[in-house]
């Protein structure tokens, strides 16, 4: 190429007047070059149909400045039959009869021509059988980007998830054409029909847990959002508005995040489920090890302020709030808590000035917000003194049981605590973050879930200072795990709620309004309980976790005037290593039964069980 360019130049300078071009180069970069550009990774999940040659190119006329690349598809000369591309989805595509799928993409022809034809947009089985299709008329004159949006309503369900989303042209008519495509999208029906919304089955599983808050921008590990470098951090303004304006980013866990699920999508999700948002802001530390110097924090503090204003600002007073209004939400979203960073014990030495500078700037502007610190609790000493701390615990099932008194010794002085991430993830205390070969769990087990439940009885007992708690991580695609175990696993076709999910659901759906002190469990024992009262229904609710194999016999003595003769027991129990997995999705689910209750009654807690007893008492 270089040689021919010189030849051309030499020839032209003799024979022609050559237009003089001066090219100046900016010393500052506008955007990083994605490592996937020009690599086969960018073509992951894409397939050629009938010899079309798809490639990823840096488009000379990009569809938007946020999306500089396009998928270039060449219909080879002499083609016949349908020629184009297929995409196998995110490890498969579930195709269900009667569901409406919304498909969209942008396209432009590389060169103007008199070609007239149509795109066939379809869902097909992996062997090429069409499940549903529709045609969109196109002409070769369309050399500027044009969006195609169609709905597909299959009348037959596919027998497996090995299906493709395909776009083809008739090869003989389109022979020689080059088409550029961008921003493909295929959505099944969404939860509450939100455009760009949540998959119904996953969202419903979460909704059924009746969560009261959601930690965002991602529920587990803001690590996802911290980025390995400062440039790769999650930035709220790159995740709102039209998808065409969302550049996406390389996330911490080694794959590209499209940010199709952006800040406003999370907030709408909170609204749909009646959840509060606990929102994190980036606090000047990238996981690769860089802490922004104190003198350089200004723009990042401003960006955090803008992020908060986008959520709660007055649309007449603040530009980010006006943006929210223009996107269809004039009213502020509810927000009470802002978390400054995530797991900042990774950079505790710089957190002292980062916490100080962020909170000193933000607290006066947002006096009603409570800011949460994320380094180790009370370490380092921070100023201003944090009103709340976020505590994370990943450990063994027995650690959780042994630490169910974790918060009992904390001073009651106005400081409150958020158990922002916890899970029993390994049975090997000398290798908590190891592999399944050394005890790491792939899915929660009945043993891990009962350990967590033991710990949660302690959270309930300490609910005067522990204001919220969330298992982590929440979701896992079984075909592509970066971390196990997870609360809810799924694949393209199904959802697999774990034993831990059922524990969370049992605790969440059986919350009380007030805690009733009772005989304390033995601190280093294996049997744990907590007692609450639900005022509206006059119910006493007792949660019990038995963390070992042998059953335990409990007797309750209740001081009330009258206690119903019967109550309900909801019990989750199974073998120590029993897990709900794709092959045994419903191995352990809660079962209800009626039990005898009264002013004094006995209950046998099965080995490895979590029980919720409820009955009326006055
Ligand atoms: C369809 O998907 C399968 C994987 O499920 C893949 O092997 C095949 O190449 C795809 N075909 C098309 C046309 O996309
Ligand atoms: C987001 O805002 C920051 C300034 O806070 C700016 O540097 C960045 O370019 C913006 N990103 C997008 C995608 O608009
Ligand atoms: C509460 O006690 C803890 C531990 O002693 C201390 O670090 C924290 O600053 C105290 N909070 C207040 C508001 O005094
Ligand atoms: C626990 O982890 C250690 C360190 O990896 C390993 O040597 C040991 O074999 C593990 N124990 C079990 C029971 O897997
Ligand atoms: C439990 O703790 C008590 C008090 O610390 C101690 O005396 C007892 O030995 C412990 N029991 C076991 C089984 O560890
Ligand atoms: C569960 O534990 C039992 C008894 O230790 C063992 O026989 C079985 O293979 C284990 N099952 C799984 C799925 O690990
Ligand atoms: C079990 O009982 C609880 C509490 O009464 C109830 O909410 C739940 O729907 C019941 N579950 C089943 C499977 O009947």
TrEMBL record:
One BP annotation, GO: L-arabinose metabolic process
EC number per UniProt: 3.2.1.55
Pfam families, sorted: Alpha-L-AF_C, ASD1_dom
Domain of life of the source: Eukaryota
Keyword terms of this UniProt record: Glycoprotein, Hydrolase, Signal
Pathway: Glycan metabolism; L-arabinan degradation
Signal peptide (from-to): 1-20
Recorded family membership: Belongs to the glycosyl hydrolase 51 family.
Protein name as catalogued: non-reducing end alpha-L-arabinofuranosidase
Organism: Favolaschia claudopus
């Amino acid at each position: 190429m270089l040689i021919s360019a010189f030849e051309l130049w030499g020839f032209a300078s003799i024979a022609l007047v050559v237009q003089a071009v001066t090219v100046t180069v900016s010393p500052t970069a506008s955007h990083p070059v994605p490592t996937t550009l020009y690599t086969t990774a960018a073509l992951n999940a894409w397939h050629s149909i009938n010899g079309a040659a798809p490639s990823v190119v840096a488009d000379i006329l990009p569809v938007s400045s946020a999306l500089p690349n396009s998928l270039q598809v060449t219909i080879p000369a002499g083609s016949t039959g349908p020629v184009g591309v297929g995409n196998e989805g995110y490890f498969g595509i579930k195709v269900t009869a009667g569901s409406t799928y919304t498909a969209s993409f942008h396209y432009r022809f590389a060169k103007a021509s008199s070609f007239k034809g149509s795109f066939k947009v379809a869902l097909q089985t992996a062997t090429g059988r069409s499940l549903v299709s529709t045609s969109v008329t196109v002409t070769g004159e369309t050399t500027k980007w044009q969006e195609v949006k169609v709905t597909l309503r299959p009348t037959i369900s596919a027998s497996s998830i090995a299906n493709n989303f395909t776009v083809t042209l008739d090869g003989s008519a389109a022979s020689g054409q080059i088409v550029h495509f961008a921003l493909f999208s295929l959505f099944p029906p969404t939860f509450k029909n939100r455009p760009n919304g949540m998959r119904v089955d996953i969202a419903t599983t979460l909704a059924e847990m009746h969560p009261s808050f959601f930690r965002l921008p991602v529920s587990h590990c803001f690590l996802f959002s911290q980025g390995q470098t400062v440039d790769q951090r999650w930035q709220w303004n790159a995740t709102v508005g039209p998808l065409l304006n969302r550049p996406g980013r390389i996330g911490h866990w080694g794959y590209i995040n499209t940010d199709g699920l952006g800040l406003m999508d999370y907030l709408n999700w909170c609204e749909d489920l009646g959840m509060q948002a606990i929102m994190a802001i980036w606090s000047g530390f990238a996981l690769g090890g860089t802490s922004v110097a104190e003198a350089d924090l200004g723009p990042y503090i401003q960006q955090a302020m803008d992020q908060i204003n986008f959520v709660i600002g007055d649309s007449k007073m603040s530009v980010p709030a006006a943006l929210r209004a223009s996107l269809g939400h004039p009213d502020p979203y509810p927000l009470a808590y802002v978390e400054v960073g995530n797991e900042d014990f990774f950079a505790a030495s710089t957190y002292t000035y980062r916490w100080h500078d962020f909170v000193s700037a933000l607290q006066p502007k947002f006096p009603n917000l409570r800011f949460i610190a994320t380094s180790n609790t009370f370490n380092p000493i921070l100023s201003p003194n944090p009103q709340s701390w976020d505590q994370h615990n990943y450990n063994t099932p027995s650690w959780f049981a042994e630490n169910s008194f974790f918060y009992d010794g904390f001073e009651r002085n106005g400081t409150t605590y958020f158990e922002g991430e916890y899970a029993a993830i390994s049975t090997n205390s000398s290798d908590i973050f190891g592999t399944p070969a050394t005890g790491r769990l792939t899915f929660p087990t009945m043993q891990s879930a009962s350990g967590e439940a033991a710990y949660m009885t302690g959270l309930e007992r300490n609910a005067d200072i522990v204001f919220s708690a969330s298992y982590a991580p929440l979701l896992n695609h079984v075909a592509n795990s970066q971390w196990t175990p997870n609360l809810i696993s799924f694949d393209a076709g199904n959802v697999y709620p774990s034993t831990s999910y059922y524990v969370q659901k049992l605790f969440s759906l059986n919350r009380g309004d007030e805690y009733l002190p009772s005989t304390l469990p033995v601190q280093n024992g294996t049997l744990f309980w907590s007692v609450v009262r639900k005022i509206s229904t006059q119910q006493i609710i007792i949660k019990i976790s038995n963390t070992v194999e042998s059953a335990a016999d409990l007797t309750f003595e209740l001081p009330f005037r009258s206690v119903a003769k019967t109550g309900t027991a909801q019990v989750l129990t199974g073998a120590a290593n029993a897990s709900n997995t794709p092959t045994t999705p419903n191995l352990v689910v809660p079962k209800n039964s009626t039990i005898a209750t009264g002013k004094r009654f006995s209950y046998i807690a099965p080995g490895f069980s979590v029980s919720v007893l409820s009955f009326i008492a006055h």
